[in-house]
Structures are given as structure tokens and as C-alpha cells.
Amino acid sequence: MTAKDFLSQAYRIDQRINSKLEQVQSLRDLATKATATFSDVPPSGTRNVHRMEDVICKMMDIEVEINGEISGLLDLKLEIKTSIQSVTDVEMQTILEMRYLCYEKWENIASALHLDLRWIYRLHDRALKQINITRH
Fold this sequence. Notes:
The protein is mainly alpha-helical.
């Protein structure tokens, strides 16, 4: 894996974390709806409390699994941040952070740093050569 590929994972990680958080919220909403439905007195017959407990247990298991995945994604994002900090030049670190952690466009980075776009590209290339990919 190249340094650029490694750093580019941060954007997808954020997308996946947001997706996982939406899944957790959806499960919580479903659990709330389910408990509200089962808390009303049924029109006839008896309630199947064990079935409801099973549904809630499954949802909790899925939520725990999702939270574990989020934790793993956050660990990977921390590895990316640590790799960026391994670059010795602060200006190059800033370019990498703006590009790979803040997802800025090249033009915005050049404007914010008051540098020529071509110079930003050169500094970026130099910074990529200094990246240490530390996979645990």
C-alpha cells in the first residue's frame, strides 16, 4: 500500500463511521418503537414477552458489534494522524492534514496557505515520501 493510499483511507473511514452511527441510531429507534408497541395491552390473547426480549437482545448484539467496528475505524484514523505527524516539516504536515483529514480541495489548501498550487503539489509529493506507515 502506498502512502497516498494509506492516507486516503481517512475519508472512507469517516463515511463508514457515520454510516455505523446511523445504524446504531436506527436500532435504538426500532427498540423504542418495539418496546412502546409491546407495552400496550394487546387486544386479545397473551403477549409473547420472550420474543420481545429476543428481539431486543439481537439489537443490542448488533449495536455492540457496530460499536466495535467504529472503535477499529477510529484506531485506523489515529494511525493515519500519527503517520502524518512523522513528517518533519510542519508546512507539509499541514498540507497532509488539510487534504487527508479535513478533505480540502487542492485549490483551497493553496489559498489558505498562500502558496502556489504547483508548489503545494511538490510539497505534497515530498511529504508522501516521508510518511511512515505504522500498521498495528
